[in-house]
Amino acid sequence: MAVLLSGRGSNYLALQDAVDDGRVPAEVVLVLSNQPGAQGLERAKERGVATKVVPHRGEPSRAAHERKVLAALEEAKVDWVCLAGYMRLLGRDFVEHYTERILNIHPSLLPSFPGLHVHEQVIEHGARVSGCTVHLVDAGLDSGPIVVQRSVSVLDDDTPETLAARVLEQEHLAYPEALVRLLGEPWRVEGRRIVFG
Ligand code: GRF
Which atom of ligand 1 lies at the shortest distance from residue 107's CA? Predict the structure, then answer.
């Protein structure tokens, strides 16, 4: 599989750890970023994993950028694409190329609080529970079928930073858990639901 990221890459590391210790029966063959300076690229290099930068800046359109990303994924012969803090929306062509083979992790209990600035929104809304969601990616924003969710309480004195840190711990468990299920059991998508078994 390939991991696509734009930033620090802690979810990538959690996946890499789960692959390396045999929990997830897969291999990360490529870590790709649209951001040349992404910390996650350094982390991948330290783990001996191939990396590639495909900058979106300078490309005439989203489609043009995505064609380059797709070419890199095809060259690496990946079966699965894991988005881990990849800060780009994927277009329909991309999603259809890897139908039901692209995963994303989002730091809220979807369908609540899609998009950006999630923890601020959660606190502002007064939600008592938050969490994270691993889902299959479709052409919408944080909208595909849900694979795994893990929850945390929102505390009265939470700031976006403290909440983000607690949710992130759960993210690092949820992403490997989702892959263990998807790679380890039969499943199918029925409407919005993933049905296992
Ligand atoms: C995570 O909170 C993830 O849910 C969101 O972006 C953040 C990425 O963090 N999509 P990291 O780069 O994996 O540390």
Answer: 4
